[in-house]
Amino acid sequence: MVKIALDATPLTELTGGVSRYTSEIAVKLAECFPEDELWLLSDQAFEMPGASLPNLKKGGGTGGILERRWWLWGLQNEISRRRINVFHGTDYAVPYVPISPTVLSLHDLSPWLNPSWHSAADRVRKRTPVLLRLGLATLVLTPSEAIRRAAIERFRLPPGRVISVAHAASTLFRPIQTRAPAVPYFLFVGTLEPRKNIGLLLEAWREVRKVHAVDLVLVGRRREDFPMLETEPGLHVLGSVPDERLPELYSGCLACVYPSLYEGFGLPVLEAMQCGAAVITSKDPAILETAGDAALTLDVGKPELWVEALTSAIENPALLANLRKRSLQQAAEFSWEETARKTREVYAEAVKRFRRKS
């Protein structure tokens, strides 16, 4: 039996890509490797993932003096007390003292590429490069080859220390038979934040709506650094919605439109594809890996192309049908089972390398 601990702090947020990743990988590791013991650890209150599995357990600080500085002392205390074999920092961090093998998830480089994309990420910006430079993470895990290459270059990491393992979409996401909506709609799903480039989507949709009766539905938590949107005809800002509702929204849309400026993987793109939705998205390198040739990909610097693409989605049913077919084919290339298997291999490699160093 191997005892594996994951940082559960992302689960303090009910939505968002890192929260979803942490939940999915924890559950799937527990399902695929029932002989292992999986611990979710945090010094903050969090909800356990929905699945109830005997080998998926909850731990955290006990309130003692050593837990008051979690990453320096409290987490180390938990790792020692639980006799953890390997720790996975699911959100840019690992313990500050290397007493056991660790894997650090580096989801993307957005905190360093543009500070305005993450106004509250100063701690990550300062801490993570130090952890990497000091070798406190035995191995670094990225969700795409694009981020792997970027991480190696920016942080001057040995290539053999950085491993890419693609994410996947939950089996919850599947095509749903829906009634045709009273008014057709384009759909955006994701956190409402500056990096998602929602302004471009709004401008393109407004131009198209001058000619065609079509709505725009925005789904996702609004971050504090994203402005409140004024009410206007045809615009539906739903905020966070239950995951169970998303497949219906994806399945019923004309197209899922995702004009993000930068991504580490682009999970909403894959979720949409797994529901059989047509996808119109940006030519971000990581998104291109995820979407392959199954999406309509556009330059974010050319707004007129987005107007043309949205117009084509309305006027060209054959284009939509082709994109939907290719979406399902592309989505079939990904699974959380495969992600869990490859991640488990990374843990085993981290243990080997740590032993060689010790």
Question: Any descriptors?
Answer:
single chain, 358 residues, Rossmann fold, 2 domains, six-stranded parallel beta sheet, 12 helices
Characterize the structure shown.
The chain is built from twelve helices and 13 strands. Strands 3-2-1-4-5-6-7 form a seven-stranded parallel β-sheet, sandwiched between helices. A six-stranded parallel β-sheet has the order 10-9-8-11-12-13, with helices on both faces. Helix 6 crosses helix 10 and helix 8 crosses helix 11. The chain has two domains: 188 residues, Rossmann fold, CATH 3.40.50; 147 residues, Rossmann fold (3-Layer(aba) Sandwich). It is of the alpha/beta class and 358 residues long.
Task: Map the helices and strands.
Blueprint: E1 3-7, H1 17-32, E2 37-42, E3 56-60, H2 70-82, E4 86-89, E5 102-105, H3 110-113, H4 122-133, E6 139-142, H5 145-155, E7 162-164, E8 185-189, H6 198-209, E9 215-219, E10 235-239, H7 246-252, E11 255-258, H8 267-274, E12 279-282, H9 285-291, E13 296-298, H10 303-315, H11 317-331, H12 336-357
Helix pairs in contact: 1-12, 6-10, 8-11
Query: Gyration radius, to the nearest Å?
Result: 21 Å
Query: How big a fraction of the residues is strand?
Result: 15-25%
Number of strands: 13
* CATH topology grouping of the largest domain: Rossmann fold
| Spans where pLDDT lies below 50 across 5 or more residues | 63-67
**What overall form do the CA principal axes indicate?**
elongated
Q: What does the average pLDDT come to? A: 93
Helix content: 25-40%
Query: Based on the structure given, which CATH architecture of the largest domain is correct?
Result: 3-Layer(aba) Sandwich
Q: Main sheet?
A: 7 strands, parallel
Please, what is the oligomeric state?
single chain
Assigned CATH superfamily of the largest domain: Glycogen Phosphorylase B
| Largest beta sheet: strand ordering | 3-2-1-4-5-6-7
**Ends apart, CA distance between termini:** 22 Å
Q: Number of helix segments?
A: 12
Secondary structure class reads alpha/beta
CATH class of the largest domain: Alpha Beta
